[in-house]
Amino acid sequence: MTRISDDATAVVTDDVRFAFGENWASYAGGIDDERVNQAVAGLQALLGPDALVGKRFLDIGSGSGLHALAALRLGASGVCAFDIDADSVATTEAMLRRRAPGQPFRVLRRDILTVEPGEFAGFDVVYSWGVLHHTGQMREAICRAAALVGPGGSFALALYRKTWLCWLWKIEKRWYAQAAPERQRVAQAAYRGLVRLGCLVTGRSYAEHVRDYRSNRGMDFDHDVHDWLGGYPYESITPTEVVGLLHGLGFEPVSRKVRTDAKSLSGLLGSGCDEFVFRRVRQ
């Protein structure tokens, strides 16, 4: 059964929030079978070949709905997806209705900072990819998301790596989220110029970088540029801090993919995400 609930109480710590849902809706229009298959393969590589068979899967910050769909393709017994952004909720519902008719899923509008654990607790897999650092209260959001993982369950998340320039990107993102579209386009052009320069310095082809670009969240280059420049609220965290926080919540690390490339180390082009899978070992 599919339903959308509009009784979300959004907690926004500032008067500015980037229109993530509009960007996801635009991206979703170009999702084809190849991108669905890539999402399925990526989720399988992250969690294991049969990790979702017969399991309950919760997608926090569902965006386009692509990974909720991938979970169903991998045999999840039920999928619940929620997002604070109404456009993302609508896009996720449309994606699952079209590509997973009759499958066991729910699509809800919720804010992770105000969810009631009794409504969502006990999932076998909780997945939140590039989301919790945009809540305005990242550590609180991580704790609340972790509380929804059942005994022995998995918590998969990706979070922005902390760099020495995060303070500057936070200022930029707040400006961009409020800027008029024409100013956003100027900022996008400037950022593409920086990426082009970075490719030149490192001996890579900019054209090939754009052509072959696939983010782990399932975006193309242009949509990801818009998402990165506008992603406000914005926080970041070190891998050591992530592991320490989750250890205190009863989790042990299963796998991690920590960025070591020049981008994440310098922060000049932004910060990529470090990726983690944890397993609950105690309540």
The share of residues in extended strands comes to 15-25%
The domain count comes to 2
Taking all Cα atoms into account, the compactness measure Rg is: 18 Å
Given helix and strand content, the structural type is: alpha/beta
- Secondary-structure element pattern, one letter each: HHEHEHEHEHEHHHHHEHE
Could you give me the name of the CATH homologous superfamily of the largest domain? Vaccinia Virus protein VP39
Q: Architecture of the largest domain, CATH level 2?
A: 3-Layer(aba) Sandwich
Overall mean confidence score, pLDDT: 91
The percent range for helix content is 40-55%
State the end-to-end CA separation: 31 Å
Strand order of the largest sheet: 3-2-1-4-5-7-6
The fold-level CATH name of the largest domain is: Rossmann fold
Q: List the total number of helices.
A: 12
The CATH C-level class name of the largest domain: Alpha Beta
Poorly predicted residue ranges = 1-11
Number of strands: 7
Major sheet attributes: 7 strands, mixed
Describe what you observe in this structure.
With 283 residues, the protein is an alpha/beta fold. It has 2 domains: 189 residues, Vaccinia Virus protein VP39 (Rossmann fold); 65 residues, no CATH class. 44% of the residues lie in helices and 18% in strands. Helix 3 links the parallel strand 1 and strand 2. Helix 2 packs across helix 3. The longest helix has 21 residues.
Task: List the keywords.
283 residues; Rossmann fold; 7-stranded mixed sheet; 7 strands; 44% helix
Any chance you could write out the topology, listing elements then pairs?
Blueprint: H1 20-28, H2 33-47, E1 56-60, H3 66-73, E2 78-83, H4 86-99, E3 105-109, H5 117-120, E4 123-129, H6 138-146, E5 149-160, H7 166-178, H8 181-201, H9 206-211, H10 221-230, H11 239-248, E6 251-257, H12 262-266, E7 273-280
Parallel strand pairs: 1-2, 1-4, 2-3, 4-5
Antiparallel strand pairs: 5-7, 6-7
